[in-house]
Design a protein that fits this description.
six-stranded parallel β-sheet, 9 helices, seven-stranded mixed β-sheet, single chain, binds ribose-5-phosphate
Length: 336
């Protein structure tokens, strides 16, 4: 008897590291096998008995595509339920489709809500653990327990260490108005400050990923280093345009910082990685989206990826312990 940790194909490395950290706490690793048919259908099979057990399933909702990943998740949940697991907690460090959280034009779906309905259709799924959702209101799409851990818990200590606690030279900036709360939270984790800068971002009306950054409000960035804090870097358009504007306003070094490094190709002839490297970016993200060792080595000149196994091991432990507190993991100093 024990609590079982399982992982879909792209998450085995993270899940086994988490399990290793919890091996003295009655956690066991259970293998899942995936059969991929020539027709592209997929069939999961749980290789260990989980009857009557609580299970934690680690999954990437990005690999190989967000759409394939959702089907794989639903099928794995079904396999666990049909294996008589007592409960399923989903550890989904990055959740796709969360940007489609409202009707922002006529005759479009609210895709984030559709995804929530699909996930909750399986009654054994009792809880979700994730990081930095695009907006906090996503929690309201779910009736099950939903723990949203701020990426700042991992990202702020990186900058505290890098600047050796002397953070007065660093200005925290949100690349758009929508991200103001997130950036202010990061600033709070950094050194308890409240003041941040905000940029005005506009996308061109043709649904392309062209981004225009128009202005800046906040403390002067002249001769300062800047942490440009967003929830995700996708094609890189937002962060590149904001960085260029900040340099124009006199900033020294600009760090593009986000929980999620998605890095989708902006066009057919260039990858996001090449585009960000060419633009001279320095990016820091967490490993919510798994990448190979080779990928990390090839991109280490501009990209730092921070591990999540310690944080997620604590999250798994707190959520599985009666009286445990997940909020204790992301409490800022001097708060309750
Ligand atoms: C938008 O509201 C998000 O917070 C990100 O700023 C955006 O999705 C990043 O996308 P990209 O890197 O393609 O500009």
């Amino acid at each position: 008897m024990g609590i079982h940790i399982l992982a879909t194909e792209h998450m085995t490395d993270l899940a086994s590291k988490v399990c290793e950290r919890l091996k003295d706490k009655n956690f066991l690793y259970a293998e899942v096998e995936y059969v991929h048919f020539p027709s592209q259908e997929v069939k999961p099979r749980i290789l260990t008995t989980v009857r009557g057990e609580h299970t934690y399933l680690f999954h990437s909702l990005h690999h190989p595509t967000p759409n394939d990943a959702m089907i794989k998740l639903l099928l794995t949940n079904d396999a666990l339920a049909r294996s008589s697991a007592e409960s399923i907690t989903l550890v989904l460090p990055y959740m796709s489709y969360l940007r489609q959280d409202r009707k922002d034009e006529s005759r479009v779906p609210i895709s984030a809500r559709v995804m929530a309905n699909l996930i909750e259709a399986n009654p054994k799924v009792k809880k979700i653990i994730t990081l930095d959702t695009h907006c906090d209101q996503i929690q309201g799409f779910y009736d099950i327990s939903f723990d949203n851990i701020p990426g700042s818990v991992v990202l702020a200590p990186y900058f505290q260490k890098k600047y050796n606690q002397d953070l007065s030279d660093l200005v925290v900036v949100s690349p758009d108005y929508g991200g103001t709360k997130r950036a202010r939270d990061f600033a709070g984790y950094l050194d308890g400050r409240d003041e941040i800068g905000v940029m005005e971002k506009r996308r061109s009306g043709d649904r392309s990923n062209k981004v225009e950054t128009l202005g800046y409000q906040g403390p002067s960035v002249e001769e300062k280093n800047v942490v440009l804090y967003d929830d995700m870097i996708d094609t890189g358009g937002s962060i590149i345009s904001a960085t260029q504007a900040l340099h124009h306003f006199g900033a020294k070094k600009v760090y593009a910082v986000a929980a999620h490094g998605i890095f989708s190709p902006p066009q057919v002839d260039i990858t996001a990685e090449e585009r960000l490297r060419k633009a001279g970016m320095q990016a820091v993200v967490t490993k919510t989206i798994p990448r190979s060792e080779q990928y990390q080595q090839e991109n280490e000149d501009w990209l730092t990826m921070l591990p999540l196994d310690e944080l997620l091991a604590k999250a798994v432990l707190e959520t599985s312990t009666p009286g445990g507190s997940i909020s204790s993991l992301f409490r800022k100093k001097n708060t309750t």
